[in-house]
Design brief:
It is built from 6 helices and 6 strands. It has 166 residues and is of the alpha/beta class. Strands 4-1-5-6 form a 4-stranded parallel sheet, sandwiched between helices. It has a two-stranded antiparallel sheet with strand order 2-3. The N terminus is likely disordered.
Length: 166
Amino acid sequence: MSHARISPLNPYAAQPQRRPEGYATHRMRPTGWTEAESRKPLRVWLNPAHGAALLALAGSYELVWATTWKDEANDWIGPHLGLPRLPFIDWPQMHGRAPRDTFWKTQYVLEYAGDREFAWVDDDITDMDREYVDQRHPFRTLLMRIDERIGLARPDFERLAEWVAA
């Protein structure tokens, strides 16, 4: 079974104060969000339709959180989307140094995938990440960069469905 990391579910870089159509605003206080950073809770935009779209993929993918929120994504994000508790990548070090100018998560996503094919969706994937994975992972992969101003859209879900069916 393939693995998918789905992010960003929250199009956090959309025009300030302009919630994208179909999204609802949620206020959250995950562990990493402290009073020192803001007196207000973190604003997160989530599209409830994404839960059903992800669950439709779950027959072909094992859905896995690959977020800095780690298991807290199951408490703060999953319930708003109607998702069950999902496994997560427990980063040994977050925001640390990464090999060859890759995103810091890349090495750990690759380690988590092991000897399986996988799809990974993130807003920080670059060509360096694709090259790094291609050189080190002999199995089929799909690394999709999602625009953090837009978030996941129907064509992204279609691409994931097409890739796993191929």
